[in-house]
Specification:
Radius of gyration: 26 Å
Number of strands: 0
Order of helices and strands: HHHHH
Number of domains: 1
Shape: rod-shaped
Helix content: over 70%
Oligomer: single chain
Strand content: under 5%
Length: 102
């Protein structure tokens, strides 16, 4: 039972595994060994096309998620800059109207 919860991927997948946090490795292992048509522990621990596909997808999704997280602060900074610029334009417009009216 503990073999199902403890990932023991083949060394061949070290490159993919080094890019993933432990929680995703465990989740990937659990998916491989406990789905409707699971791989045996021997199959999941060896070089197998399904293992490679699932690990590659996990790495792609993890990288995309990290890129989205990096983009969020930039969006917030842009929004703040635009808001400040808009406020400055409104102030300048009010001052121009006040000078024009007087």
């Amino acid at each position: 039972m503990t073999g199902i919860l403890t990932p023991s991927f083949h060394v061949y997948y070290s490159k993919q595994l080094n890019q993933l946090p432990r929680s995703i490795k465990i989740d990937t292992w659990r998916r491989l060994t406990s789905r409707k048509h699971p791989l045996s522990l021997e199959q999941a621990s060896s070089i197998h096309p399904e293992v490679e596909d699932l690990l590659n997808k996990a790495v792609e999704n993890y990288i995309k998620q990290k890129e989205r997280q990096k983009m969020k602060p930039i969006t917030s900074d842009c929004e703040t800059s635009l808001r400040q610029e808009n406020e400055e334009l409104c102030r300048a417009s009010r001052i121009a109207r006040a000078v024009y009216v007087s």
